[in-house]
Amino acid sequence: MKLYDLELSGNCYKVRLFAALANIKLEIVPVDFLGGEHKRPPLTGLNPWGELPILVDGERVLRDSQAILVYLAGTYGGAAWWPAEAHLQAEIVQWLSTAANEIQHGPASARLVDKFGYAIDKAGTLAKAARILPLLDAHLAERDWLALSRPTIADCAVFPYVALAPEGGIELTPYPNILRWIERIKRLPGYLAMPGT
Ligand SMILES: N[C@@H](CCC(=O)N[C@@H](CS)C(=O)NCC(=O)O)C(=O)O
């Protein structure tokens, strides 16, 4: 199974982190992102969006980190990582959507501005972060994990860009429950870091 990967991408890291925690073997294929390798063939043949990560498992090709997490958890993770019941799956998926929406357009986009110079409205990213981080902190006041009372791909999807928020100029000290959750994730067996976490 191949993961077309960029080390500094939190979206790629979501997949590397989950594979490490669930002991799923991945062949990491580093992509020359600065050289635009993901924007031309053969990679655009795998993902016409021109984005990473991309997972190739035999004949199956998948884009989008959230979709890849669902695929890996459901195919290789067993019931511990992907429950059979739709209402439990939905409890996880609501956090995958949060990762792709509020977290992506808040803390992740603030980091794109500060660390990589993207032309995104920084004030807008900070406003979005200022809405989602208190909600996340309040959710974690009552529980150790985002969904199902155990680590799931919900935590793997949300963790990277929240832990990397300081790289976008967003301090996490006002959010003690988030800080405790970050430390909890770092203590999980198999935990894998990325630069900045
Ligand atoms: N929804 C996608 C977003 C993927 C994405 O935007 N990836 C970035 C790297 S983190 C990318 O490849 N961007 C293309 C570019 O900026 O040229 C996911 O969750 O995987």
Q: What does it look like?
A:
With 197 residues, the protein is an alpha+beta fold. It folds into two domains: 75 residues, Glutaredoxin (3-Layer(aba) Sandwich), CATH 3.40.30; 101 residues, Glutathione S-transferase Yfyf (Class Pi), Chain A, domain 2, CATH 1.20.1050.10. 51% of the residues lie in helices and 8% in strands. The protein contains seven helices and four strands. The chain has a four-stranded mixed sheet with strand order 2-1-3-4, with helices on one face. Strand 3 and strand 4 form a beta hairpin. The two termini are 25 Å apart. The mean pLDDT is 98. The structure holds glutathione (GSH). The site of glutathione has 12 residues, from helix 3.
Shape: globular
E-strand count: 4
Uncertain ranges: none
What is the mean pLDDT?
98
CATH fold name of the largest domain: Glutathione S-transferase Yfyf (Class Pi), Chain A, domain 2
Order of helices and strands: EHEHEEHHHHH
CATH class of the largest domain: Mainly Alpha
The CATH architecture of the largest domain comes to Up-down Bundle
User: What portion of residues is helical?
Assistant: 40-55%
Number of domains: 2
The strands making up the biggest β-sheet line up spatially as 2-1-3-4
Bound molecules: glutathione
Residue fraction in strands:
5-15%
Structural class: alpha+beta
Distance, first to last CA = 25 Å
